[in-house]
């Protein structure tokens, strides 16, 4: 069929711009929406200490704790040495002894000290963000390959303890807002079509970078993966409206200066919407009165040169295979029913 089409162009000397034909094979997609990121970690290999003002962690390789000690705060993004803390009743605790909290039972005022290796203890919470995504992909048959960039304005929220919730306060990050940027490659496959809808499974793999609020020198991140389904409503051959739910899978570890490490999982659920366009391989008809939907040939009245053109803007809902400007017959349109039957209310 492609050879036959090419023969027609040659036979009738119909001009097509080769650059536009090439660019037409690439699609540009822009989306935005909301993200929901769940941060979670299990503290291991550390002591966790809480008093009325502070929450610290520090390595549990210390064999004896005195009446005064200090630990590290802000272990989500940028570990900082906390203030020296004194217990109300000075004592020495041998390594491995701690397993139960001590102190005032009133939440917010109690002293709480625990070796995290003796129990499953950590924090988790959901934060939100607003992503802006731009992607370019090349499509051949039902397969796609491309690359993209995403920028997310991210708002962090407090995290709740996974144990001892009646005695331990929520962990409050020292930052309210940061950013995430993603640079990724993408492969996709169009696995289903229904009327004007396409359903495409997409896999993205790339690197994520956080804002300056995260100490990059203390953080180790690997590649992230994102799996999503792109639901595309084809308004025309060149214009699509998209809804894309997807999930990021990613993690990082942060090194505490005393030698301990905290590992985080922070998967992200995305719900995004936007548009996807590709550059038409043929231009609009130079005749302003030309609204023919099907691709057709225009002959320049001066030069006699033939060229293929279209009579419709790319965003107008249309069926280029049939050329119908209206999916419903005139008499079925709601605004025209009264004209057909004026006596009917």
Structure notes:
By secondary structure, the chain is mainly beta. The chain is 7% helix and 48% strand. It is built from three helices and 24 strands. The strands form seven sheets. An eight-stranded antiparallel beta barrel has the order 2-12-13-15-16-18-19-22. A three-stranded mixed sheet has the order 1-24-23. It has a three-stranded antiparallel sheet with strand order 4-3-11, with no helix packed on it. It is elongated and about 95 Å long. It starts with a helix and ends in a 5-residue tail after the last helix. The relative contact order is 0.17. About 6% of the residues have low confidence.
Q: What Rg is obtained from the alpha carbons, in whole angstroms? A: 31 Å
In DSSP terms, counting alpha (H) and pi (I) runs of 4 or more, how many helices? 3
Distance between the termini: 52 Å
Order of strands across the main sheet:
2-12-13-15-16-18-19-22
User: What is the overall shape?
Assistant: elongated
Share of helix, binned: under 10%
Short description:
This protein has 345 residues and is mostly beta strands.
Layout of secondary structure:
Layout: H1 2-11, E1 14-15, H2 18-23, E2 26-42, E3 46-50, E4 55-59, E5 64-65, E6 68-69, E7 72-73, E8 80-81, E9 85-86, E10 93-94, E11 112-115, E12 122-140, E13 143-155, E14 160-161, E15 177-194, E16 197-210, E17 219-221, E18 224-234, E19 239-249, E20 251-255, E21 261-265, E22 268-278, E23 296-299, E24 306-309, H3 334-340
Parallel strand pairs: 1-24
Antiparallel strand pairs: 2-12, 2-22, 3-4, 3-11, 5-10, 6-9, 7-8, 12-13, 12-14, 13-15, 15-16, 16-18, 17-20, 18-19, 19-22, 20-21, 23-24
């Amino acid at each position: 069929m492609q050879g036959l089409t090419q023969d027609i162009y040659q036979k009738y000397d119909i001009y097509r711009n080769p650059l536009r034909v090439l660019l037409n094979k690439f699609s540009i997609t822009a989306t935005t929406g909301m993200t929901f990121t769940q941060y979670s970690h299990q503290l291991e290999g550390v002591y966790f200490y809480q008093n009325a003002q502070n929450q610290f962690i520090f390595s549990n390789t210390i064999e004896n704790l005195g009446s005064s000690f200090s630990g590290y705060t802000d272990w989500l993004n940028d570990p900082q040495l906390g203030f020296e803390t004194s217990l109300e009743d000075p004592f020495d605790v041998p390594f491995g002894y701690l397993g139960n909290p001590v102190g005032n039972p009133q939440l917010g005022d109690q002293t709480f000290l625990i070796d995290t290796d003796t129990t499953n203890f950590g924090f988790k919470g959901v934060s939100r963000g607003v992503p802006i995504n731009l992607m370019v992909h090349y499509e051949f048959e039902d397969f796609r390959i491309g690359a993209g960039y995403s920028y997310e304005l991210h708002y962090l929220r407090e995290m709740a303890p996974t144990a001892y919730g009646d005695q331990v306060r929520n962990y409050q990050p020292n930052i309210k807002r940061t950013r995430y940027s993603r640079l990724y490659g993408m492969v996709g496959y169009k696995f289903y079509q229904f009327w004007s809808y396409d359903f495409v499974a997409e896999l993205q793999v790339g690197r994520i970078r956080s804002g300056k609020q995260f100490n990059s020198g203390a953080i180790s991140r690997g590649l992230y993966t994102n799996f999503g389904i792109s639901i595309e409503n084809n308004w025309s051959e060149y214009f699509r409206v998209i809804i894309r739910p997807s999930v990021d899978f990613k993690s990082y570890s942060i090194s505490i200066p005393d030698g301990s490490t905290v590992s985080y999982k922070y998967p992200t659920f995305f719900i995004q919407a936007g548009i996807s366009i590709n550059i038409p391989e043929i231009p609009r008809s130079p005749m302003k009165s030309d609204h023919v939907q099907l691709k057709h040939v225009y002959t320049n009245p001066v030069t006699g040169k033939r060229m293929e053109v279209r009579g419709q803007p790319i965003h107008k809902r249309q069926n280029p295979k049939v050329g119908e400007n209206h999916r419903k017959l005139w008499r079925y349109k709601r605004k025209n029913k009264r004209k057909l039957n004026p006596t009917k209310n």
